[in-house]
């Protein structure tokens, strides 16, 4: 049994990747719920980062630093004076990792190494954001779900770099006594998700008169969680989690892709068969499923967005009402997919 942590009250945190989909949701969540906490966002603003995601945050609550997590000198400049790093920055898309894995090794593995070295040097807390994909996949008819004890078995270049980064955190914690926690979350959905990902891609396809694209037969299962529930879980783990521990985050949201796509089509007033089957993803994981008992029972966390259909409807409305947010990236994203035959 590892050390029982006292409740940690972070006053001045760095959020890496805070201009991305999930990181920016966490920044808003902290600003809205914790007036005592100041946030410094460190983000390289890659194709996936967007400062508009942080619009409306008062300047006395957040500083923004444009920079690369692999830049050790920059970390020496900005880390002192902070009491924790919450590390979201990553190359996050499986299909991109299959087309070009190198940025994934650099940002996800080397970037995490640089942050851990800075945490070691300045003696601050560190929370590591990871994914359920590190556990590989489950068979469609397997009653099992992933737990914190499931062996690592990643399938894609993306998930293998995330698994590598988790292992670095564990080793730095044991060897150097770093004060860390790790969370592995299932598939997120909600506003501000890049149009390369499944749900926003299909919504914005329909909005632009393009038929949605389903990989293979569409029987693959993902365990969906609203990104706000992910944010509340991360705050819970950062403040109450036991040092050195891993917590799985999930909200019992298992659904197969074809059912999600049909729901999107129905909610958008389209025939449920108005989509194309396209080439499957190489190595496509069949099913993810999270058992979040440890997080729920030990730390008392509960999701609030438990009605997937109403969360999906609100997400569709957000994309329909905010075309200026996604239109500039849509064409380039679809060009990339076209080259991959998807
Ligand atoms: P995203 O691609 O939307 O955002 C990633 C952010 O990181 C961007 O703002 C980007 O500019 C920034 N970034 C990338 N490389 C950087 C670098 N070298 N230095 C500094 N900043 C850099 O990703 P997301 O979907 O918001 O995912 C965030 C985190 O959550 C990732 O660690 C991902 O592995 C994890 N995660 C995602 C999901 C999901 O469903 N999307 C599920 C579980 C875990
Ligand atoms: O056009 C598509 N058609 C399709 O059928 C796309 C983009 C995806 N899919 C399928 C592939 C997956 O089975 O939909 C499912 C979800 O795909 P993604 O949105 O690419 O997510 P996934 O590969 O499951 O990974 C996501 O969840 C775990 C995030 O992108 C990761 O960052 C996170 O770690």
TrEMBL record:
Cofactor names: NAD(+)
NAD(P)-binding domain mapped to chain residues: 14-313
Root EC class: lyase
Keywords annotated in UniProt: Lyase, NAD
Enzyme Commission number(s) of this protein: 4.2.1.46
GO molecular function: dTDP-glucose 4,6-dehydratase activity
Catalytic activity: dTDP-alpha-D-glucose = dTDP-4-dehydro-6-deoxy-alpha-D-glucose + H2O
Family per record: Belongs to the NAD(P)-dependent epimerase/dehydratase family. dTDP-glucose dehydratase subfamily.
Protein name (database record): dTDP-glucose 4,6-dehydratase
Phylogenetic lineage: Bacteria, Bacillati, Actinomycetota, Actinomycetes, Bifidobacteriales
